[in-house]
Design goal:
Layout (H helix, E strand, L loop, with lengths): L2 H7 L21 H7 L11 E10 L4 E12 L5 E7 L11 E4 L4 H17 L3 H14 L2 E9 L2 E10 L12 H4 L2 E6 L7 E8 L10 E11 L1
Antiparallel strand pairs: 1-2, 1-9, 2-3, 3-4, 5-6, 6-7, 7-8, 8-9
Amino acid sequence: MPLSRHIAIIATVALCVLPAWAKAGTPPLSPAQIDLFETPHLHNIRQPVTLDYSYIRTGPGAFTDSIAERIVKIHKDGSKEVAFKFLTGPHFVFYPGVDHFSGNPLIMVFLEHDVNELKDEVGIAAAYFRDHIRQAFVDQAHVAKTTFQFDGHAVPATRITLRPFEKDPRFMRLPEVRKKTYTFILADGVPGTLAEIRAVMPGDPAKGVPQLSERMTYQGEKQ
């Protein structure tokens, strides 16, 4: 299903809605857009299963938790019905399930959670952060080869990094936001392909602002 139709299914996870095909007369999709939003990450899931991720937040409000992504149903075309349990207990955030996905929608769920955290921390509408992140995938993302430790082995992976607010004059007096860095690790050998996402907002010692980091890392699967 084209990503442009996903927004009609569920708006809350449609953070990075991109066209499935580049329109005539427009630039082609960037490598980061293709890797993150136009690649069938769930192709290596062949039966209903739960993908478990650890979640670690360091800095203000530090805590450790877990995230579960349930592949509920596999359709004949290979697309999946997916449900989420994003954090637990007092940290739990509800995100409705989605259907007919081939990419991994947990990428968008994590980013939706992130922009809402930014909204609460900085006091600027989440839509403002969404727009900057979307645009950064087009012209600011850096894509490189790397490895990821999975099942005791280093497996080939792709690392995508970006600083979407680095050139935004609005944050000249908030260097911790301006230098916020997002890192995505994709590894075809990992079920669901999404190996890790990190979002790091560096500290500002001059202002006594500590570093804030959020990391979601694949841990394993269960039936």
